[in-house]
From TrEMBL:
Signal peptide: none annotated. The chain holds residues 243 to 517 of 526 of the full protein. This is Bifunctional diguanylate cyclase/phosphodiesterase. It comes from Roseibium limicola. Keywords: Membrane, Transmembrane, Transmembrane helix. It comes from the Bacteria. Residues 23-273 form the EAL domain. The keyword DNA repair does not apply.
Length: 275
């Protein structure tokens, strides 16, 4: 086995070296960016599909590198997870987002994404509650979005964390619904306040009968369980109209608005309600 390994290493060495060097470089820059607080939340609006009013903003991490421009969160969040920086990154982003949201009108919610890797921290609930106290944001205004993969690693621990959050009045949202492993039993056992239908469904449900039925069923299920449904990734009017007609409560997507920096939030809110 060793000999084969050696041959393979020889063949791939130049590529490996380059990839490793690039990775080491971006890791170094990620550490520096964290220290310099160069990663900040941008805010994407969520509307009530029936009234068109903005009801919440989702905080999405943005890292602007002086040389490379914006680096995708899909890249640097995964890296922060790998090199043990996710806790620090989340702390920074959550603190920033909560303090931004504390100055918004009281009827506007803040949604924040939590890495599934953080769901194994027994003290997570307490940490988040402490940040709320520090920033003065009321717990009921915070929505924590987790994906189905957060539920796989340690379901009992995930339940404990979700319970802590909900006991404190924080809302818990199941993100990217339909892409992972969630089953109906998980939905009925875990008590989510909201469910987000993944954007891959929104992109194609109108031309796919099965997906259309799934979307319709999830919306009906939400009604039955008292769980509000959000559709993400709405890019055109036809998708928005169809979802509205199906009775979907909330919507989010480029059609409604992309993520904007904190400074632009008051403007956007003012623009939608001139009085
Ligand atoms: P997500 O939580 O599912 O966030 C939605 C993603 O879809 C965002 O990408 C958003 O910009 C994008 N999006 C919104 N509307 C549309 C649309 O109409 N069409 C399309 N095609 N895309 C749309 P983004 O900002 O690149 O974030 C990617 C993922 O990175 C997020 O997926 C989330 O899982 C993760 N992420 C972002 N910020 C954070 C963070 O602060 N903490 C953690 N743990 N994860 C984060
Ligand atoms: Ca999300
Ligand atoms: Ca999502
Ligand atoms: Ca996603």
């Amino acid at each position: 086995a060793k000999r084969t390994g050696r041959n393979m290493v020889q063949g791939y060495e130049p590529f490996m070296k380059k990839a490793l060097a690039e990775r080491a470089d971006i890791e170094k820059r990620l550490r520096l960016a964290l220290t310099a607080r160069e990663i900040s939340p941008y805010y994407q609006p969520l509307i009530d599909l029936q009234t068109g009013e903005i009801r919440a903003f989702e905080a999405l991490a943005r890292w602007r590198d002086p040389d490379d421009g914006f680096i995708s969160p899909d890249v640097f969040i995964a890296m922060a997870e790998d090199i043990g920086l996710i806790m620090e990154l989340t702390n920074q982003l959550l603190t920033q987002a909560c303090s931004d949201a504390a100055s918004w009108p009281k009827n506007i919610q803040l949604a924040v994404n939590l890495s599934p890797k953080m769901m194994v921290d027994r003290l997570l609930g307490i940490r988040i509650i402490r940040i709320l106290a520090q920033t003065g944001l009321a717990p009921f205004r915070l929505e924590i979005e987790i994906t189905e993969s957060a539920l796989i690693a340690d379901i009992d621990l995930a339940k404990t964390v979700i319970n802590d959050l909900r006991t404190a009045g924080i809302k818990v949202v199941l993100d990217d619904f339909g892409t992972g492993y969630s089953s109906l039993s998980q939905l009925s056992n875990l008590y989510f306040d909201k469910i987000k239908i993944d954007k891959s469904f929104v992109a194609t449900f109108q031309s796919n009968d099965k997906q259309m039925n799934i979307v319709r069923t999830v919306i009906a299920l939400g009604k039955g369980l008292g769980i509000a449904i959000t559709a993400e990734g709405i890019e055109n009017v036809s998708q928005m109209d169809a979802l509205r007609q199906l009775g979907c409560r909330f919507g989010q997507g480029f059609l409604i608005g992309k993520a904007i920096p904190s400074e632009e939030v008051p403007q956007l809110l003012e623009h939608q309600c001139p009085h």
